[in-house]
Each structure stands twice: as C-alpha cells, then as structure tokens.
Amino acid sequence: MVLYFSGTGNSQWAALRLAELIADDEVVSMNQYLKNGKKIDVQSQGPLVFVAPTYCWRLPRSVEHWILESSFPAGRDTYFVLTCGGSCGNAAAYAEKLCEKKGLRFCGLAPVMMPENYLALYPTPSEPESRVMMENAGRCVALLAKQIKAGEKLDAAAVSFGDRIKSGPVNPLFYKFIVRDKGFTVSESCVSCGKCAMRCPMNNIDLKEGKPVWKGNCTHCMACIGGCPTGAIDYKSNTKERRRYYIMDDSLNQNGGGGRG
To answer: What is the crossing angle of helices 91-102 and 61-69, to 10°?
Structure first.
C-alpha cells in the first residue's frame, strides 16, 4: 500500500508512479484523512510505502502524528520516500524511531529530488528546469519501486554532522518561528472559487465574504498559493514575483481512501 501526503503535487506524482510500478499497488491519500481528523486502520498484507514532502529535513510533523494515531499491521515492512528540493538531512533516523513506536519494520528512507515548491522561502525553478528534474525523478522512482517490489532495503545515505543539526535542533525552531499563516494575503484578483479551502489538508481555510481566511493551523504545504487559479494568494512579499507550482490531481486529493488497487 502506498500512502501519500502532498501539497502541490510532487509527492502525489511520485506515489502514483511508485504504485503503478509495484504491481499496481493500492494508493491512499492522507490529505483528506488529515483534513477531516480521521485515522486509518490498514489491513494491507503488503509493504507500507509512505510518500511525503520533506519539511525542514524530516517527515512533515502532521504526517508523523497521523501515522502515530493510525493503525497498521505489526511487523509490516515499511518504506519512506521523501520528495525534496535539496536534502532530507537525517530524516531516516526519525522515520526509524517512528517505526519502532508503531511496531513496524523500517526498510529505509530515500529522497527524490523534484522542483522546489516552498514559495514562502524559495523560488521555484523555471519550466525547462522543472521538466529536467521530473525526468530525473522518474528514473529515481523507477529504481526505488524495483527495490521495494523485490523486498530489498533502500540504500542508506551518508549523514553529516550538519544533517543531524538540521533534522534535530533546527527542525522544532523551524516550526516555532517559520511555519505560520499570518503572512498570507489575498488580492482583488480572487474569484471566490474556494479551491484554496478545498485543497487545504489541514482544514485551515474558511471563506468569509468569498475570500479565504486562515485559522492558525497551517503546515506551509503551499497548496493554497500554488493551486490558486488566478495567483491571488501571496505569503508576505516573498512570493510576489515567484512562479507558482502545482501538479496535483484534485480528484485524488478529495477522496481520502485513494482509489486503485
């Protein structure tokens, strides 16, 4: 079973391709489970493959909490595939600890480099650059699928002292000082379509008089900015001139149970 969380579509894209290559495996979107505050009781007999973006060199905190509160078959082989714009740091060590808490068998964590989508802090690459990155990501996903299908452990990457610092003490500071929604603004180009509220996996956006209002439970997934059809949403002045990035299939974002299997 492939379970994914995605803000602007990188991790969804990787998850769907992994599932297709691992003998058409079942796909489950975590987004709507998170949105509705629901857990899951997994009965799958195959390996578990969690696919998510890298948030400050680790699995997103919201995803980690959801895994802890959901039920999975004890002893199940468990893989983590994290999409990233740079590095996963020491994320594998924390994923392994998570597996220990849940009684799962940790089989490795691998990064998949994809176009940067964290508009609040970084610019996205150009369209030609993104295409090249997606081609490389496709080859990386194919290799990972082959290893997972064969029941092999994923290759462990070398971890530096800097990686340990970034995934360790820097991570909670990032959530404390950076991950906030007070910087979001909406311009007059907003057409009140409500897609930002629909796409928000944290159920953190309401529409008031047709305009989005953020409620203080943001995870900085960038779904609202990236997916706004008119580019009306910005984060402070950081995103004003930055290219929006969104490749998610909304039909899968809306059906919490996923759909192939």
So the answer is: 20
CA distance 110 to 177: 28
Tell me which CATH code domain 2-169 carries: 3.40.50.360
pTM above 0.85, yes or no: yes
Closest to 48 measured CA to CA, from 71, 31, 32: 71
DSSP H helical ranges for 48-168: 61-69, 91-102, 127-149, 161-167
Whether the CB-CB separation of 232 and 190 falls below 8 Å is answered with: yes
Calculate mean pLDDT across residues 59-66. Answer: 96
In this structure, CATH architecture of domain 180-235: 2-Layer Sandwich (3.30)
Tokens of 243: 């290219």
For all residues of the chain together, what is the average pLDDT? 91
Judged by phi (left if over 0) then psi (alpha if -120 to 50, else beta), residue 257 lies in alpha
